[in-house]
Amino acid sequence: MQIETISTKPYSDQKPGTSGLRKKTKVFIEQNNYLQNFIQSLFNVIQIKGKRLVLGGDGRFYNSESIQIILKMAIAGEAKQIIVGQNGYLSTPAASVEIRKNKTDGGIILSASHNPGGINGDFGIKFDGKNGAPAPESVTNAIYEQTQKIDSYKIAKMPDIDLMKIKTKTFGKTEVMIIDPVKNYADLMEKLFDFKAIRTLFKNGFSLRYDALNAVTGPYAKEIFENRLGAPKGTVTNGIPLPDFGGGHPDPNLTYAKKLVDFMYSNKASDMGAASDGDGDRNMVLGKKFFVNPSDSIAILASYADITKGYKKSISGVARSMPTSRALDLVAKANGWDMYEVPTGWKFFGSLMDANRIVFCGEESFGAGSNHIREKDGLWAILFWLNILAKTGLSVEQVVKNFWATYGRCYYSRYDFEGVDANAAKQMMDGLIKKLPELKGKTVDGLIIKKADEFSYKDPVTKEKSLHQGIRIFFKSGERVIFRMSGTGTQGATIRIYFEKLVKKPQQMELDTQKALAKLIKAALKISRLSQITGRKEPSVIT
Ligand code: VG1
Ligand code: CO
């Protein structure tokens, strides 16, 4: 086999964000060797020769072409084995399962997650280490450094490899093993949750509507819900992965999964509604005319650990990302579990899990998971919910309201201002940071500021430090507001503001979220001067 060495020049913008490298699809296609540069840089860092990797993606536009390029580069680099999902498909959680089960040196996931796909959409690359977790900053920084000085890459000159059939074939020194992307993942779910109880639930007429948003989870959901759990055919909607996700935005939230939300708020609603994002690591859960806030969701799941098959043993601890509401803290406190607060991005949970410090973790951005893998896991969370409903006989709404009655209710909302002018966004954040020392003690719209700072984190296991992880403002009456810049957007800047208020009095728990938080939202916008500086009056997405 002929190996070509092709000269290339570095690009300055290949710095991975919160979750890998994410850019406009056209950047990957039109800028010469954009993908190749990043992959060769990655291969240089991990020293690809003799290594074993998992490879797959969420099926978005450019998935197939990228997989062929990466395979040929891995063959040129003399990788020992590449395990590829059939058709090039692997959800992010399934990739984590395969990395761990096959004990590979890591895995490459081609996805821009919840960002839209297609030629005018986004494309991305995530890299997981051998524990199956997103690579830590030390690794992504090393990759970035390589991209700054790369001058050539290696690729095997050969025809495309057929990924349609499940089989194993060797090319040069590299074995390419094509696997069923669903089986190992579904088997693991069956070990964690009580499939028998959930089967009975469906048999007794319980209805679920799962919207795969034409992204990667369709085949997983069909196998698990319809085949293994006996839910009626049609439970999974938009179940065929499409390169442009059918023109939709594969982000399971109230704005982008509108069709499912409208259905769940109609009189025809199913008992439960659910959706996942492009690469299958996020989840949204709805009851009849009822939305489950993701911060509540992870807290509720953790509180029901003992009814599952997989989490009966004692729980060491739990963790949440800093902006996630403190509902989980209340569960941890009641159960005597350790509690960790980490920066946004799943990589920070990995080291805590490897050190057996935590079992469950979650993010407000529709992410929940456990130590069964090292990525967040959309279908896992949905199955956990089904397990709870099957065992308790309660509705989604009843489960949530019982939780509030026991622990109190953390009113929670996130405002996303997408596509903001990058300079204006920076000006606003810098202005706020400068103002932090003088905020303490100030009263804004009747709310007294108790503390204002920037969140930084030192990993208790690896001792790695992460600075500037978001601005926090705490109020005397218990409310909290956080300002962060997104690390996953691809156009301009995205500013996220997170609002939280804990209420313990039962009679105050029935309020509408936006009403309950109105005063706080107004005060936060005033403090940040967001409208004046960015010219934006309304957020693009409200959760
Ligand atoms: C967002 C979320 C964060 C999540 C990340 C990756 O990051 O806020 O909680 O871990 O996406 O999720 P940011 O920096 O844009 O706020 V996924 O499903 O895109 O891999
Ligand atoms: Co995702």
Description:
With 543 residues, the chain is α/β, with parallel strands linked by helices. The protein has 3 domains: 2-181, Alpha-D-Glucose-1,6-Bisphosphate, Chain A, domain 3 (3-Layer(aba) Sandwich), CATH 3.40.120; 189-406, 3-Layer(aba) Sandwich (Alpha-D-Glucose-1,6-Bisphosphate, Chain A, domain 3); 409-542, Alpha-D-phosphohexomutase, C-terminal domain (TATA-Binding Protein, 2-Layer Sandwich), CATH 3.30.310.50. The chain is 34% helix and 25% strand. It contains 17 helices and 27 strands. The strands form 6 sheets. The chain has a 7-stranded mixed β-sheet, with helices on both faces. Helix 2 packs across helix 3 (63-76) and helix 2 (34-46) crosses helix 5. The longest helix is centred in the last third of the chain and has 18 residues, at 422-439. The mean pLDDT is 94. The protein binds alpha-D-glucose-1-phosphate-6-vanadate and cobalt (II) ion.
